[in-house]
Design a protein that fits this description.
Oligomer: single chain
Distance between the termini: 29 Å
Strand content: under 5%
Radius of gyration: 16 Å
Structural class: mainly alpha
Shape: globular
Largest sheet: none
Number of strands: 0
Amino acid sequence: SGCILAAAQRGMYDRCPFCRTPHPTDDASSLAMIQKRVRKGDADAINHLAEQYYFGKLGLTKDIPRAIELWTEAVELGSLEGHAFLGHTYCTGNGVKQDKTRGVRHWQ
């Protein structure tokens, strides 16, 4: 849309939307920035950190149980994305015991 194009042309996507600092260029700095928001109880940051654990990115070891803990915390703070990831994880049984009923409940 026009809003997205205008934001990109103004360089608004090259900065953190919270603190307005430039995006980090290395994994350690990115992880530190995310963890700072997690400590403040930011549901989006918690969800994002969970994804990093789930896929083993930003230098983190793949840890699906930790990802599930974080997604559960994000869901408790109102994250719909957290519900989507939990639903997918339980329905597919990737890293957890498959539980389609529980997965579908997260999608509802």
